[in-house]
Design brief:
With 206 residues, the protein is an all-alpha fold. The chain is 68% helix and 2% strand. The relative contact order is 0.19. It is globular. Strands 1-2 form a two-stranded parallel ribbon. Helix 3 runs antiparallel to helix 4, helix 4 runs antiparallel to helix 8 and helix 6 packs across helix 9.
Length: 206
């Protein structure tokens, strides 16, 4: 395979845990569901970027980075649904996982905390996506493996962009807040979930 796999050491150092093997097993048991929810994740990521663009008009660095990110996420969405169409996979409505909701429930309501926390959550979600793409790729067929590995570079950049924007939005070091939100994320990843989703915890333990 000719795709260059980027160095993910910064991602692994950032996250407080790795994806459990039980999630890998669940993903391999339901590959069609994984693709459907992956498509949803790309749509939601684009939507988050667009929402930030509408909300924070005075932040030109944010506007530029979120515009680029939204375009990339929509391109990824198009790639996922192209694979689904090729494989005859239907696109049903799915309930959202508790992962993103669990993170966003921790977002402060007052500014600038709201913006800072939203950006940190964005960084965490992108980092986890990147880590999961890398974890699942070796177990997939050649087409999906190539596709998932091709996503790593952009997801890693999105993680860095979100984190940089969060720090630029704050007058203080965001490290303690990042650690607090990462601990919430770790519990969501290692905890049980009633159903499998791309960002679910361990299915079957809820």
């Amino acid at each position: 395979m000719s795709i260059e796999v980027p160095d993910l050491s910064a991602i692994h150092e950032f996250l407080l845990c790795r994806t459990p093997d039980a999630w890998i097993d669940a993903a391999l048991a339901e590959p069609e569901l994984m693709l459907v929810d992956h498509a949803n994740c790309e749509k939601k990521a684009a939507g988050t970027a667009l929402n930030l663009m509408f909300r924070y008009l005075d932040n030109f660095d944010l506007l530029n980075k979120m515009s680029r990110l939204a375009r990339e996420e929509l391109r990824h969405f198009e790639q996922v649904i192209a694979i689904m169409k090729k494989r005859g996979i239907a696109y049903p409505h799915l309930s959202a996982s508790r992962y993103a909701a669990g993170l966003r429930s921790e977002v402060r309501s007052a500014e600038p905390g709201r913006l800072i926390d939203t950006l940190i959550c964005g960084a965490i979600i992108e980092a986890r996506s990147c880590e999961r793409f890398a974890r699942i790729a070796p177990h997939l067929d050649e087409e999906l493996q190539k596709f998932y590995l091709s996503l790593l570079k952009s997801e890693a950049r999105h993680f860095r962009d979100y984190l940089t924007l969060a720090q630029n939005a704050s007058d203080e070091d965001i490290g303690p807040r990042v650690t607090a939100l990462l601990d919430v994320e770790r519990k969501l990843v290692e905890g049980g979930d009633g159903e499998f989703r791309f960002h679910s915890g361990v299915p079957g333990l809820a």
